[in-house]
């Protein structure tokens, strides 16, 4: 029985020793990755390679806060603040020593300050002081974060008031515009109403104009009936004058040779001769009438 117990105890010790040996090996390998990452980051400034080494260390030993903390610092230096805050949080969770927790929360507060997330920074610095209340740098950063948060809140309130004023002014402008449109519509309705009551002045003038044209036309027709058409009347008068006086002015104005009688003079002489001949003939006829017999019977 004692031999059996001894064998079991030896077997258990062997397992424990083997696990401890493997654990130490894992920690050593993780530490080696961390050391390589620190070297390439500090000496060469090769962030991608350092990030890879830190990730290998985290995979080997997830409960070790060192690799996570160093990776968070690398993100912070590269201004990848969102990734840095995540890794600082992970480091603080797995850290067992207060000093490690304090460093993780302190640097997390610095990351929030860079992002102007002052409210989150205040909480991070408070968590850091819970692990190390005597750290003057953390207390100073906490006071600064509170001051910046107060200024930020005042600025937000100021901007909020400005936005309210803008919204109010916009509403007032819309209200004034609506009232102006309503007044314009009312004036338009009143104008239409007055137009319907009084009639369209332009149409009335047009009717009057048509009436005036009609009266004017009737007067013109009346005058035409009484006096005749002016243009044709003048034309007829011109033709009558031409018949009375003979040839027109342009023909009368033609030059003639000296010693010749004008057509008017010839016509005048002929008329005088005809008149003289007519008088002689009338005297002869008068003598014949005196000697003739008068008939009393009517002819059938």
TrEMBL record:
Segments for region (Disordered): 151-300
Keyword Nucleotide-binding on entry: no
Top-level taxon of the source organism: Bacteria
TPR repeats by residue range: 102-135
UniProt cross-references to PROSITE patterns, sorted A to Z: TPR (PS50005), TPR_REGION (PS50293)
Residue ranges crossing the lipid bilayer per the database entry: none
Protein's UniProt keywords contain Protein transport: no
Pfam hit, one: TPR_11
Basic and acidic residues bias (residue ranges): 151-253, 276-285
Keyword annotations: TPR repeat
PANTHER family in the record: CELL DIVISION CYCLE 16,23,27 (PTHR12558), CELL DIVISION CYCLE PROTEIN 27 HOMOLOG (PTHR12558:SF13)
Name of the protein this chain belongs to: Tetratricopeptide repeat protein
